[in-house]
Amino acid sequence: MTSTCDILFTLLRNGLYADREPEMIPELTVDEWEGLLEEAGRQTVTGTVYHGLSRLGSSYPLPSEVLFRFVAEANRIEVESRQKEQVAWNEFQRLKGEGFHPVVMKGPAVACFYPAPMLRESGDIDIYLRDEEFRKLCDSLEGTYRLSDGSVHYDRRGVDFDLHDKYFDLHLPAERLPEVPSPYATLLMLSAHILKHASGPGVGLRQFCDMAVACEKLSFDPAVLLETYRKAGLWKWSILLHAFLRKYLGLKDIFEGTLPTADPSPLLRIVLEGGNFGHHGPRREKVLGTDIRQRKIDTALRYVRRLPFSLKYAPRETFRYLGELIRGNLRREATTEPQ
Fold it and tell me: What pairs with residue 126 in β-bridges?
């Protein structure tokens, strides 16, 4: 790992844990800062990095042109986050008023755990509804389209919403899954979401930051969480994931040494290779401007290329993901690859 990435992780740790003394970083050149800013953007963690940097105080020697770029990006992220928060709140109130019981998923579900929530860069707003409510709402909405993972996309005032009838990116009977909502459901949902993208399209640091702050802030019994991982068939994956969170993002050992040790470098390579959802990988950037067929072929090939990794850590889910991808891409209404 390069020194720039070392410093990126240091600033992320500073930005994730407000109750810890900030770690100092060496003075960087303007070119080194440009490289760090570029990588933070690829990983969609610029706001959290900025917050971590701000904790070093005004005495830290930051070039003025770098400071201006950080401030501009942080302001942009905060404005967008506040807009999305307001639109999402209005949409949730509307749904509840119509008798629905929406549950927020993924990043928006844990943004409040960040020391600076508005600096967490957000994407789509993911909503979970149980089967009957999911179908009823989909039938009532206009301007929707179905993604190849089965979720349904719609827009509200320029904010993207994704409706899901599955809370977990897992293919298991209900008795092997925790109750929704609960801390165990949230942590398993975040873990499985990272696994799905690490096994194919790619995954960035924002999703790992979400998992880290959720582990830090939620109240749960570590023994019950480990049993949740076992029931879900994600034991090997969980060992790797938590090794990554401890080594690079400074998560405390919540299991007090009961998990075996692991080398998280295979996961780090996936993160650095493509950034946020793999969008910045060299192969992916070449096909993003092409037609939907080429993008779908590229998505499928990425799952194939990751088979040595995914079969090692989650073989059962790997075959399920591939089957889901094939079925989804055969649907006429599927107009984009899963995100």
Answer: 162
Query: Rounded distance, CA 269 to CA 260, Å?
Result: 21
Residue 16 or 289, more confident: 16
What is the C-alpha to C-alpha distance for residues 203 and 198, in angstroms, rounded to an integer? Answer: 5
- The tens digit of pLDDT for each residue in 307-323 reads 899 999 998 888 777 77
Task: Specify the pTM.
Answer: 0.91
DSSP sequence for 204-215: -HHHHHHHHHHH
Q: Which of 208, 211, 241 is nearest to 44 (CA)?
A: 208
The domain segmentation of the chain, as residue ranges, is: 3-330
Spatial CA neighbour of 129 closest among 99, 172, 107: 99
Instruction: To the nearest 10°, report the CA torsion of 243, 249, 251, 252.
Output: 80
Three-state SS at 160: strand
φ/ψ bin of 32: left (φ > 0), alpha (ψ from -120 to 50), beta (otherwise)? alpha
pLDDT of residue 337: 42
> Cα–Cα distance between 44 and 37 in angstroms, integer?
10
Closest CA to 104 of 32, 198, 189: 189
Tokens representing 45 are 């963690």
Backbone conformation region of residue 278, classed left if phi is above 0, alpha if psi is from -120 to 50, else beta? left
Residue whose tokens read 């790619």: 202
Q: Are 91 and 83 in contact (CB under 8 A)?
A: no
Residue 307 has phi, psi (to 5 degrees) of -55, -40
Q: Determine the Cα–Cα distance for residues 250 and 259; give it in Å rounded to an integer.
A: 16
For residue 275, which amino acid is it?
A: G
Amino acid 177 reads L
